[in-house]
Amino acid sequence: MIIREVIIRKLEMTMKNPFSTSFGTMHDRQFLVIEVIDEEGNHGYGEGVAFSIPWYTEETTNTSLHMIRDFLVPLLKEKRIQHPDEVNGIFKSIRKNNMAKAAVECAVWDCWAKRQGMTLSEAIGGKKDRIDVGISIGIQRNFHTLEEKINESLNSGFKRIKVKIKPGYDIKLLSEIRDRFPDVPLMADANSAYTLADIELLKELDQFNLTMIEQPLASDDIVDHASLQQQIQTPICLDESILSAEDARKAIQLGSCRVINVKIGRVGGITEAKRIHDVCQESGIPVWCGGMLEAGIGRAHNIALTTLPNFKFPGDTAGSSSYWKHDIISPEVIVEEGTITVPHLNGIGYEVDFSEIEQHCIERIEMHL
Fold first, then answer.
1. Which of these is catalytic: 10, 101, 162, 164?
2. Is residue 159 annotated as a catalytic residue, yes or no?
């Protein structure tokens, strides 16, 4: 396969509901859609999931666009790609910028799967026909609003509830949730808001029977997390700290976590996500697929990834209607009784809705290779 053309689209879509974490609140979501076209006219699509502000990692929508246009796409010129795993190696000369790499690599995976007449799930070795999903609920203005959202989510069949916590918005919040929902599978996401100085407070989390606490300490740490995991019963899930299979191996060796969240964008693409999956599976560490408030293309890639066997916990891949008035794929991602049926069309399994894309497109770049 030779990539002959790449189209970069920058989109901005308004979320149905503002999403708040310890970093801040998002009302509008900027993201990239990458389209690659091979020499046979096959089209593949990837989504750049970096935020417009460097809250989650150092990458932003604009830095990703710069990296893709000026560095990554030129590296693909005249390359004959036998398998999408090769793209990871082609991009090795570029340090980090994982979300930019993932956007392009995912588009190549989609294109290659279509070329082979396979679903993306089949192409990566997935085995499931349906995946379980949970939902991530951002910080709310009061408990009554949060309670309504949890009720609504449970009534919709979601298999797990994740809530955001931060200092001053943690023990009381979780206590109120447990009083109202004593048996719901519940996890707390701290987004690196704590330090080891908060260890006595973090020990109090054990009383709430959480499925896990996600990334309580620094975003680049695995050492302090190992110390914390030794002192609390609640399983620690690492997110931002794990950028590669090597990171996963080291964290497991240190005992820094008992669960790992895999995000395609964070780790640089599907190839590295599969490697992390395999390392964790060999070590008996379950994984699950986190979310980045994706639109439909990124959501489709997450669905395919979650069909791998070691994805043991419901992921954050909720249905399109949870976030968008209209998504950019057809049909939209639909959750039924807490599960998503894996699509059977070749590639990502959904058609791209170009009328919706063009409505939200604020920049377009065409590159001929």
1. 164
2. no
